[in-house]
Amino acid sequence: MVETHHDGIDVRTVNRYDGKESSIINDAISVEAALRIIVEHRGEVTLFSTTLCTPQDLEDLVIGLLWSEGVVPNSSSEIFSTFTISTENGESHAIIPDSLEVDFSSSGRLQHSTPSCGWCGRTSVDEVMELLSGKISRTSITLAIQDISDMVERVKIQQSIFALTGGVHASALLNRAGDIEYLREDIGRHNAVDKTLGSCLRDGRIPGEIGILVLSGRAGLELIHKAAMAEIEIVISVGAPTTMAIDIARAANITLIGFVKTDSMNIYTHPQRIRSDE
């Protein structure tokens, strides 16, 4: 019997077939819930986004989304401690201080109610790069190629919801020593990244200064855009990237690595950050 008390996990009765035997068991299932994100600023209330997500770490999600979409200034992480965020009955309400500027028109924000992708309608690398306002990741980190699969394994071990359900994605920020600084899980890939960035920002830290983002699945355009907004230097993905993800990573000076296994991987862009210590 599965027994768990967790905002991201529910228990459901299922008919399980294993070999030649059938049984009724309790199984851990990933929770999928609708969330409306409402932003209040200078007396104006805006429905910023409606999404499907794992209903935990929601303050991290709100902060990360506002930051990665360029709605609030992202030059200073300290400002996020001044936000007031409350969540109740499927709504997260964020109050941004009047002293701060916001720009809802700045982004090519095209949020949808699907957890798999927060983007559509972008047809060229130039269009996406315009949203980055000239952001180019610095080059200050190098990694031994032998350490990369170890980083992926460390993240996998810490995926507590996935271990029970198999139904969520993970995103993690690691430092150059390979230590996990922040890790979040969600049914949506982009939500997991926003939660990870948001958790870092809420601690008053800049994600790009930590430098390495590990993704548990594929690396699509929307995730590399968020990494570029955060000025991440290296993105490590268990799965495959897309063509536009590769193009954006190249333009933003991000080292993009995919298909990471114990003894193999593909380095798609900026291999100068990866060294062999053999």
Structural commentary:
The protein has 2 domains: 33-130; 143-275, Cytidine Deaminase, domain 2. The protein is built from 8 helices and 14 strands. The chain has helices spanning 58-68, 125-130, 145-157, 160-165, 189-202, 207-210, 221-229, 243-251, and strands spanning 9-18, 21-30, 33-41, 44-53, 84-88, 91-96, 143-144, 169-174, 180-186, 212-215, 234-237, 255-258, 266-267, 274-275. The strands form 4 sheets. The protein has a 6-stranded mixed beta sheet with strand order 9-8-10-11-12-13, with helices on both faces. The longest helix has 14 residues, at 189-202. Mean pLDDT is 89; it is low at 1-5 and 110-116.
Regarding quaternary structure, what we see is single chain
Cα-based radius of gyration, to the nearest Å: 19 Å
Strands of the widest sheet, in order across it, are: 9-8-10-11-12-13
Largest sheet: 6 strands, mixed
CATH class of the largest domain: Alpha Beta
Q: Tell me the count of domains.
A: 2
What are the SSEs and their pairings?
Layout: E1 9-18, E2 21-30, E3 33-41, E4 44-53, H1 58-68, E5 84-88, E6 91-96, H2 125-130, E7 143-144, H3 145-157, H4 160-165, E8 169-174, E9 180-186, H5 189-202, H6 207-210, E10 212-215, H7 221-229, E11 234-237, H8 243-251, E12 255-258, E13 266-267, E14 274-275
Parallel strand pairs: 3-6, 7-14, 10-11, 11-12
Antiparallel strand pairs: 1-2, 3-4, 5-6, 8-9, 8-10, 12-13
